[in-house]
């Protein structure tokens, strides 16, 4: 399950601010954060980049851990 919510909480940002940074709707971010939808590979990278732009210091693997671990 993605750790989008946890990272946002750590940096004190909202799903809305992440959505604006990426250029997608807040509801899309919510679906990704809750695991209701899986983002494409490119969108996942965009999410990680946006989280880092908002003040996080995270890697792809930290936000989207391997489902086999």
UniProtKB/TrEMBL annotation:
Alphabetical list of CDD domains matching this protein: HTH_XRE
SMART domains named in the record: HTH_XRE
GO function terms (MF aspect): DNA binding
Residue stretches making up the HTH cro/C1-type domain: 4-52
Cleaved signal peptide residues: none
Domain of life: Bacteria
Alphabetical list of Pfam families matching this protein: HTH_3 (PF01381)
InterPro entries cross-referenced by the UniProt entry: Cro/C1-type_HTH, Lambda_DNA-bd_dom_sf
Listed name of the protein: XRE family transcriptional regulator
Native source organism of the sequence: Vibrio anguillarum (Listonella anguillarum)
The organism's taxonomic lineage, starting at the top: Bacteria, Pseudomonadati, Pseudomonadota, Gammaproteobacteria, Vibrionales
């Amino acid at each position: 399950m993605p750790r989008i919510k946890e990272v946002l909480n750590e940096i004190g940002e909202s799903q809305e601010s992440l959505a604006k940074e990426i250029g997608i709707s807040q509801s899309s971010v919510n679906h990704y954060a809750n695991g209701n939808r899986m983002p494409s590979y490119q969108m996942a990278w965009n999410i990680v980049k946006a989280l880092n732009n908002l003040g996080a210091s995270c890697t792809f693997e930290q936000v989207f851990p391997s489902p086999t671990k």
